[in-house]
Design goal:
With 127 residues, the protein is mainly beta. The chain has helices spanning 5-9, 23-27, 73-76, and strands spanning 31-41, 50-55, 61-66, 80-84, 90-92, 95-97, 100-101, 103-105, 111-113, 125-126.
Length: 127
């Protein structure tokens, strides 16, 4: 078992003191399935990142800045991912990021993408 005190120094680890939210608050967050259709390097970003274009079906194509450079660009094309689609757009350097791609942050800082276990229709909402 890991030392629980180490989780307090890493904001991506479980913290028993985190703020609880209600189910109705959670329902406001729209997490949807998208497919990455374009990936480019993002040298202007402060931390290593890619620019992503993600197809969300009827919702259209949305852009995202994602710190997922542990993946090769080629392996990201056509990959289904989960993303929060109803945050306000956020300016990242010279790029407007419209959605937040979801991933688990490992101890070494690498991000592992969250995905479905099989292909599902683009734009479907995750509950």
């Amino acid at each position: 078992m890991k030392n629980c005190s180490s989780t307090l120094s890493n904001p991506h680890k479980i913290d028993a003191r985190s703020t609880e939210i209600t189910y109705s608050e959670f329902e406001k967050v729209e997490i949807r399935v998208g497919k990455i259709i374009k990936v480019t390097d993002f040298p202007e970003a402060r931390k290593p990142a890619y620019k992503l274009w993600i197809d969300f079906g009827a919702l259209g194509i949305k852009k995202s800045s994602a710190q997922i450079t542990n993946y090769q660009r080629e392996e990201l094309i056509d990959k289904q991912v989960l993303a929060v689609t109803n945050f306000s757009p956020r300016q990242v350097a010279n790029f407007m990021s419209e959605v937040l791609v979801l991933g688990a942050v490992l101890d070494d800082g690498q991000v592992v993408l969250i995905k479905t276990d099989r292909d599902v229709p683009l734009g479907n909402r995750i509950l």
